[in-house]
Amino acid sequence: SIMTQERVRVSCNAFGVINIADRLLVLRSRSRTGKEGRSVYSPLGGGLKYSPDVKFWLTDDLGAEFEISEKRPLRMEIPIDKIEKFEEWYLKREGRETTPYREIREELCIEETGILFEDLLNIYTAGSPWLVVNRKPTTREATGVKGKDTIYFFEFHPLTFDDNSKKVISERANEITPHR
Fold this sequence. Notes:
Elements (H helix, E strand, L loop, with lengths): L6 E14 L2 E2 L1 E8 L5 E9 L7 H7 L3 E2 L8 E5 L3 H10 L8 H8 L14 E3 L4 E8 L11 E13 L1 H10 L8
Parallel strand pairs: 1-9
Antiparallel strand pairs: 1-2, 1-4, 1-6, 3-4, 5-6, 7-9, 8-9
């Protein structure tokens, strides 16, 4: 009989920690609700992508099986004994996105939330990012994924916007209807 190697799901994400007028900027989810129908809020940002040049290393050396391949998200299953090798690569910050800027622009551009045009959005780093690694079953609803043992790599980036973007966001903050 062939031994099946234990695998674990890995999900890598980056979020902006953004204060505007002493309030943390978050998005209300349209598709998810919490207990008793309460709104669910999340920080801006989301899944990180890997660079095309590391795909073969991830699949051949790490044995990664990606959930979706066309958009290159860092969401995959790997053998549990390769997690340290993956983490070493991840911490080098090479061959992957290292900021949540792309996701934040997607979330705040006019097509998704109606807040800003992409070219008005000037994001600046406001401090060093920190990493939280957490292991728990995923609640993601994607086909065949819900409940899978997942190791999450969450990066939190202190960010700020230019004054004009802050003004627009503050004025529009209560009318946001996010895409999720």
